[in-house]
Amino acid sequence: MHLRLSYEGVANVNPRLIYASFTGYGEAGADADQMRFDTNTYFAHSGLYDGSRYDGAAPDVSMPAQGDRRAGVALAAGIMIALCNRKRIGRGCKVANPWLANGIWANGDAVQAALLDAPLLGVDAEEAAALTAVGTLRCLRSNFRGQLG
Fold first, then answer.
1. Domain-wise residue ranges, the chain
2. Whether this model's pTM surpasses 0.85
3. What is the full DSSP assignment across 6-54?
4. Tens-digit pLDDT profile for residues 91-102
């Protein structure tokens, strides 16, 4: 809300308005004004980085904008639902979509396990690397055979 345009303020002027809010940690609270990026908000604070590492290894590094795309699609879906709702009831609404909430949703299995004190199965880094290499090779061979006849 750096422009100081709140939903409550603009909805009084135009009740049909759909107000979309895309934040890192939400509009209110202790972290609302913290720096927000894919890496720290979507991946690190949601626990996705921890869940994407092998036992005893450092977390992987995400590619740029991976969380942006997922959270952006979720915001677009929320706007589409709000448009359908406005057509039905004649007034707009607020659609809020924090990156952190999207990261927690993407990491839902691990979050549920943590809330229930359930262990997640660990994966050994060397074993996973070997399986990944074999699987990738099989996939490549299969694709090339299909393309080359």
1. 7-118
2. no
3. -HHHHHHH-TT--EEE--SS-SSSTTTTS---IIIIIIITTTHHHHTS-
4. 999 999 998 899
